[in-house]
Amino acid sequence: MKTFKKSILWLLISSIIFTITSGTQLIINMYYNRIGFVILFLIFTSGFLYYSLLMIIDLITKETKLMKVIIAETDKEIIKVLRTNGKKRRIRIPINEITKYKIGQELILTLTKRTGQIIEISVSKSGSDSHRLTK
User: Fold this and answer.
1) What is the pTM assigned to this prediction?
2) Which residue, 30, 61, 110, 128, has most beta carbons within 10 Å?
3) Which H/E stretch holds residue 75?
4) DSSP reduced 3-state for 39
């Protein structure tokens, strides 16, 4: 689905913009010798840089993993699915595609390997009416 890939790309672009803005703020604070702020700033920004790096690696290598889930709830543009470990996960989908999915339907999610971003949603051909997950 192109919408999922677009959203991942948008996250990457916005992350790069925020990093550039943050770098500018860091340089300004270093110029005014605010070392306490600089240290705190580097600690918090390192997490964003790490996540951006993982997203870039995921987009370049195109390594994926599959996850089988069952739809538990649908609401406007959000569906809640039940994973194999019993936890629920919220998935935002385009409004025009909400009619494709029904409660109890089994889906296969294609996720990026490192960040777990959804790339594609496909309906499972076997066991689409089952209400139990198998490992």
Assistant:
1) 0.63
2) 110
3) strand 64-75
4) helix
